[in-house]
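Ticket #298: bound-state structure for adenosine-5'-diphosphate.
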Amino acid sequence: MWSKASRQPVPRIIKASREHLFTSEQGYKGSRVIAVSSGKGGVGKTSLVVNLGITLASLGQRVVIFDADLGMANAEVMMGITPHYTLFDCVYGHKDIEDVIIPGPLGVQLVSGGSGFLELANLDGSRRQQLVDSLSYFDRESDFLLIDTGAGISKNVLGFVAAASEVIVVITPEPTSLADAYSLIKVLAMFKVHSEVMIVVNKAGDEREARRTAQKIESLVEQFLQIRISSIGWIVEDKLVTQAVKSQEPFSLFHPNSQPGLSITKIARRLISGQQDEGPAVENGARGFIRRLTRLFG
Ligand SMILES: Nc1ncnc2c1ncn2[C@@H]1O[C@H](COP(=O)(O)OP(=O)(O)O)[C@@H](O)[C@H]1O
Ligand SMILES: [Mg+2]
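RESOLUTION: The complex was predicted; output attached.
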């Protein structure tokens, strides 16, 4: 299963305190559900999700990666693992959530959404409840649920992004990536689900180019859209990243002190220290996520 990276010594995972999950005024919070999306494909969403997941885990966070790029089994390939079931087998195949979850490096868990999610609209009440119950598992067992969505503004992608309580849009310095990211953020601003969108600039030549790219999209969004935008980091274009994808050995695991590895650590620390976006989306956690998802697809 987790063959290649098991060569690495696996640090002890520090169980993060779950106290923050319960606050008297706000009630149950659950895990932080963060969708990672983009306007254009091939910008590095899956690479970010996998390496961010591993880095968050190395910082003591419990992480589940949810592969929602339907039909593109990306995260699992990058991690060199093979899931046998998808979340939909919990609903239709009478599998337990534990059978569907695949253990990855540093305790990161991977769940494949599977193309069955397109059938969410047709779920009857009890099956829908089954799915909500399955997802509640993540609120108990994870601090971060990272969702790798597809690219663009199809109903599928938007459903996952809108249902998540936080969203990261990955952009690259290419003008097409910027234009498509703006289109995606525009639709998100219309949904009014999130009060803020985070951006990560990937494949930047250097810090200056990353900053210029971030400033371009920030000024467009601030000028024309009713949504806050904040840049949470950048990653250099580095052949180490491509090699890591080819060898199915995530760079954050094998080269945590490389430039891309250190950049991901900065992003992870920023996420941990940042507050969960308390936007108009009322119910947080995986439970809130799946409720909104079924409503949006339904
Ligand atoms: N920082 C980077 N430097 C160099 N290549 C990168 C970087 N990030 C991603 N890539 C490469 O870009 C390609 C697409 O990445 P991927 O994560 O699959 O994108 P997406 O999920 O957005 O489609 C992969 O071949 C990957 O190796
Ligand atoms: Mg991908």
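RESOLUTION NOTES: The longest strand covers residues 196-204.
TICKET STATUS: resolved
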